[in-house]
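Q: I'm teaching a short session on how sequence maps to structure, and I want students to see two examples side by side rather than one. Could you give me a first protein with its sequence written out and its structure tokens following it? Keep the formatting plain so it prints cleanly on a handout.
A: Of course. Example one:
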Amino acid sequence: MTPFELAEPRSISEALALLDPNDPSIRAMGGGTALMLMMKPGFFKPKRLVSLRKIAELAAFRVGSDGALRIGAMTRLSALERSAEVAKAFPVIASTLRTLSNRRVRNVATIGGHIAHADPHTDLPPVLIALDATIEIAGPGGQRKIPAEALATGYLETTLKGNELITAVTVPAAGRKRAIYVKCTTRSADDWPALGIAVALDADGRNVKQARVVVSAATEKPVRLSGVEAILQGGAMTDASLREATRAAASEADITTDMQGSAAYKRHLLEVHLNRAINGLLNGGARRGA
């Protein structure tokens, strides 16, 4: 690796002052797991990395009295995975983390870096979108909030400016919603999923009042399938309407071909696994928020 400056500010304001919106070789760094992989072969040659690890306020997370979960951007994924209160309030987050990469990565990676990297193969972004999460961003002009689905704009691309930082993620109380995350991997050395599906339903029996369906890994960014959601929210779910919804998903999603499989193969995976995921939720196969 080429030499670079490592800055370790102790406040958000200090960190923002070290960034430069006009210099892409200056980056904020959470756990650094993705950055290191890009730096070792020389794909990314930083002039300055601004480590956020000494900013204490970014490392806290808690479930509030209202049931909402607020996660500081520097919270390590393993801390969320092991948290009893997260597992109780949002079991889908805990179960998703148990299959995310490996324990060594989860011990270092942070939620802010995980979502800011904007790799469509990562697991938490589709789950956060399905749970209607909000992302808090700090910049020179102050704080702003965006829906989780508005962060990624394409492959490894986000709406973040060069002088902005993700400071927290807030997930509203699950209420009556049930949620599930399913991913299909090739069991290859890197274990990148060929498909990720996150579904959250507010249903009374088989009568779906609200649905959020997100597909990832097979697309260039996590994408909500609004057409599928409209079909699911059309009343009591029958076998015929479920088949209609899953077929619509295969048509609506802009699926890509890559090393994990062809677009046609992934569309088939999407249809099959979305059907199973929704059926499982409707039949009580997952707990509230699970």
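Q: Perfect. Now a second example for contrast.
A: Example two:
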Amino acid sequence: MRRIVGVLQKSADGRFIFSYDKQGVEKAKQDGFLPYTELPKIDQTYNGNVLDIFTQRLMKPERSDIQSFYSFWEIEPQYQDDKYYLLAHTQGLLPTDNFEFLADYNPVEGLHFVTDLANLSKLELLRDTVRVGDVLSFQRDPQNPLDDKAVKVFKGGQEVGYIKKVHSRVFYKPGAERLKLTVKAVDQNGFIKRIFLKVSL
């Protein structure tokens, strides 16, 4: 289960501020979560080098496969040096932990971002249930006990997952009915393990 443990934001004067969500942290501790070593106090607001701490999770720009990385995450050239943008749009994902950064988007013209679906382990979707390029539909699920901004995703009449927390909020904002979901990538063997979607307007 995903837990929201903190908020990273950029202030009007350009500073980056991080604060823990105390309630979220307490729940996440039950799942083994520990605060960041460099940011140990959950009751403190940090506004120093927090962006530098978190952007250590980004792929190094000197890597030979960096352009493939930018292409997968739909990073346009003008944003490739913007670490805050990169962290938001690539989620800072690492194979060594389950920590991720999820942006709260607005359904404005030209919006596009990549997300991966939740709840796949429970659904046990067979290989090739969805394919790259498939256009999927969505349905809001506000009565969901785990998330009052929950959004189910379907291929035809078959449920194929949920939009994950925070990313799901955009589907509840005015204009969200025009959002388009396109399968970007599928990780599978006998069953589908991950489905990445491009969400666009």
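Q: What should students look for in example two?
A: Point them to this: The two ends are 28 Å apart (CA to CA). Also worth mentioning: The chain has two domains: 6-90, 112-200.
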